[in-house]
Design brief:
Layout: E1 2-4, H1 7-17, E2 23-28, H2 38-53, E3 59-65, H3 72-76, E4 80-86, E5 96-100, H4 118-124, E6 128-134, H5 147-166
Parallel strand pairs: 2-3, 2-4, 4-6
Antiparallel strand pairs: 1-5, 5-6
């Protein structure tokens, strides 16, 4: 497990693993359960920017919510899969953790309410798989996220955008 407390470090890491044209970013979770919405909020923000400012078909963003198994065809057809989800991890948010596929324990560490166990899903997906997450503070039925998780969402979105910008996948206003 890699722990990132700085968005710049996370951005460099993402830039090193994203394969332009061969990567899918998948947001998991339920925005009805407070911080469990971490992954879907990240995917929603990324999807909005990528759909507007993408220079080429560099990365696909999927908001899988609580049904990632519905996207198994997309997940299994990409060389790199980056899952974003609330996870059981030691550091408190806004710290971000990244686990490689083989580092996810058999019982999983994802807290999302998706019906298919995350470890089983990972076993069905080939290629490189990374799980990007933060520790939730609240999992009760409640709309919105806690302040620490909101900061983590912002850090992850900015890190992805900087990585995509450095790979020339998106063009933002300040780019030449």
């Amino acid at each position: 497990m890699i722990v990132f407390r700085d968005g710049r470090e996370l951005s460099r890491f993402l830039g090193s693993v994203i394969a332009p044209g061969e990567t899918v970013v998948v947001g998991l979770g339920s925005e009805l359960r407070c911080d469990d919405g971490f992954g879907v909020y990240v995917a929603s923000a990324l999807s909005n920017v990528v759909s507007r400012y993408s220079r080429r078909n560099c990365v696909e963003v999927v908001n899988a919510g609580t049904a990632p198994e519905a996207y198994l065809d997309i997940l299994s057809s990409r060389r790199v899969v980056v899952l974003v989800d609330a996870v059981l991890a030691e550091p408190e948010p806004p710290a971000i953790v990244v686990l490689r596929k083989e580092e996810v324990p058999p019982q999983g560490i994802s807290l999302s309410t998706h019906s298919l166990d995350l470890r089983l899903l990972l076993d069905l997906v080939g290629g490189e798989v990374y799980l990007v997450g933060t520790r939730p503070q609240c999992l009760e039925l409640n709309l919105g996220v806690t302040k620490p998780v909101a900061r983590a969402i912002r850090e992850v979105v900015v890190a992805f955008l900087e990585a995509l910008r450095s790979l020339r996948c998106i063009k933002l206003f300040k780019d030449p």
